[in-house]
Amino acid sequence: xxTPLPDWNKVxxxxxxxxxxxAPATDALLRALDAAPHHRxxxxxxxxxxxxxxxxxxxxxxxxxxxxxxxxxMVAATAAKAARHGIDLACVHMRxxxxxxxxxxxxxxxxxxGVMLFDDPTAGAxxxxxxxxxxxxxxxxxxxxxxxxxxxxxxxxxxxxxxxxDMLPATERINRYGDPDALAELVSxxxxxxxxxxxxxxxxxxxxxxxxxxxxxxxxxxxxxLDAVSAERHGNIKNAFARAAETFASDGELAIPHxxxxxxxxx
Length: 267
Ligand SMILES: C[S@@+](CC[C@H](N)C(=O)[O-])C[C@H]1O[C@@H](n2cnc3c(N)ncnc32)[C@H](O)[C@@H]1O
What we know:
Rossmann fold; binds S-adenosylmethionine
């Protein structure tokens, strides 16, 4: 069954809208990565530049840092952001499954919310291990189970009566590491020493539901599903989301919890 993921080239321009909400995952990754200024660091599936720009800020230089992504649009967005901020950053278009780097050429490899989307995560994990120096560290963040990701649940529930099952969000990929067996397979492919697997929660925070909805629409992340539904039904979809979101509204804020997992270790 083919289930659509967002077209990362198309959403690149607006992906920054999510960065403030995802920032806590970067903090967790930086702690797990334990990078130092002399380290050569690779950010895989860098999107529009996180966590790579946070790594650069933490280390104080970009000399030995490389960002790569499998979508040209994302690479271009990161490169443009680096140029705007006067940062000399190597940004390359590259799939995680085929890293064009020498064996053992990085001290640190980081990836935020990318691995579960790879076409072949096991091949990506093997590549991560291959390019890592002995003693080097890796830190990856992936989404946890579907029931710990309410916005994904809302999307499925809101659309399921209107679109074919194969057009619903690809939760079997997005939430694949909520499954202990899949997680164990990933950890095994990384083949690290002193592996740490920790569970965390971040919150998408908005003043009110309409602010969340505007971000969702503007970001284009749900465009595949919206395009499959006639425009007059978009109001029903919005109402279904709004009803579901009520659980997480209080004291003038909508705070939607999202569970994620940080996997880290040393080669
Ligand atoms: C959810 S975004 C995360 C982006 C960024 N790391 C962040 O956390 O803001 C997922 C990214 O994974 C990239 N991606 C998906 N499959 C990939 C692959 N096989 N190799 C490299 N990048 C991939 C997409 O192009 C997209 O930029």
